[in-house]
Amino acid sequence: MSNALVWFRRDLRLADNPALQAALDAGHVPVPVYIHAPEEEAPWAPGAASRAWLHRSLQALDADLQARGSRLVIRQGDSLSELEKLISETQAAALHWNRLYEPASIARDTRIKQGLKSRGIPVESHNAALLVEPWTVQTGQGGPYRVFTPFWKNARQRLEGLRAGSAPKRLPEPPVTLAGLDVGDLGLRPPAHEPDWDAGFWEHWAPGEAGALEMLEVFLDGALRGYKAERDKPGRVGTSRLSPHLHFGEISPRTIVKALQDGDWPAAIEADLTHYLSELGWREFSHHLLYHFPQTAQDNLNPKFEDFPWVDPDEALLSAWKRGRTGVPLVDAGMRELWTTGWMHNRVRMVAASFLTKNLRLHWRHGADWFWDTLVDADLANNTQGWQWTAGTGADAAPYFRIFSPVAQAGRFDPAGDYIRRWVPELAQLPDKALAAPWEHADLLREKAPEYPDQPLVDLRESREAALAAYETVKADGAARR
């Protein structure tokens, strides 16, 4: 039998993997390869939390392959050069991979495909990451969408008859002489001078395809019921928590949607199903935006914000935000959850981002950079869309004048203070009435939590008014240009 390379990237699974299945369907021996070349993703090479997850995910993939008779061949260096070497070493008749949609990856993959095809090597790419690829959904005028609702109305029509492939039970063995690196050789784990900073991650996560499928099963058996009403409450498990598994391709969105479509669900949870499906739709929309507006990973999609008077970064303020020492309990709880687990509840992400971009009035890129380094689900499309949405600078964005009140948000979504008490334990002895805004209860704060800041970094009301005043200058400049 002839060999075919299957180039794994962020599709670290065997089930519903079109590239792997295409090689098998063509009668080839799949040679699974992973090439570590983070510099090719610059300026968005994986952050520290992503690297820690990747280490374990690659180990899980290799174990899954070996259990089926195959193995993962790991190389490091320039992707084209390494692929050319592998093609020569295996006499591969074809190369298969699943597509990525970030600007740097698209450019790299285009170059590789053109180079190899010019040498007569068949190269095929496939869709493994999205329900609908960015170029397949267009407005009536033939352009990209900038608003979610019509985008999802169009895209959702394409989900009927969706299929998700199963994992092969056995795989043929690749050439035994083919050399590769060990996962540990890639230097993905925390350095020796920062030992085990990720230890808290693995109390909450199990990277790999098995962990992803287990997380899906737990969600379908539990949090899916009541999802629409409970998903915004950070003190309970009310979300799927599948985002890192989706980012690394340990599970496909098709597998998730198929499970939703095939389930024997009571009519009472129809609204929950629809709402969760729309959250997958937001992931699709984020990729749609990044593909059509690749500059937005760095620049505002809304050009009027190019003149917005952001505050010059104050490293002390920025550090306090990063470390969960802002003096605003809901913000601090979120930032500490992020540091400890590599993840933050989505409702709290919006609150923390609003505090940074509107109360502190720091550019959203400062927050996007920090999330990129600390989130295990750091996805360029989602991260960019999320920050620009909250900052009010992107497509389908929250208007700039919508400023999240962390006090009101805590009262609404964490009324018993379970989330705040868990992640800001020095406040655990405060009564509920003082938990969301402890600075308003100075005597209690001094008595019960003397180590917690006695005031927020900025006055919430004054900083809100300053942000709105800054926005008025942008509106006036825009009107003057017209």
Automatic annotation (TrEMBL):
Pfam name, any one: FAD_binding_7
Keywords, alphabetical: Chromophore, FAD, Flavoprotein
Cofactor(s) the record lists: FAD; (6R)-5,10-methylene-5,6,7,8-tetrahydrofolate
Cofactor note: Binds 1 FAD per subunit.
Family designation: Belongs to the DNA photolyase family.
UniProt-listed GO biological process terms: nucleobase-containing compound metabolic process; response to light stimulus; response to stress
Protein name per UniProt: Photolyase/cryptochrome alpha/beta domain-containing protein
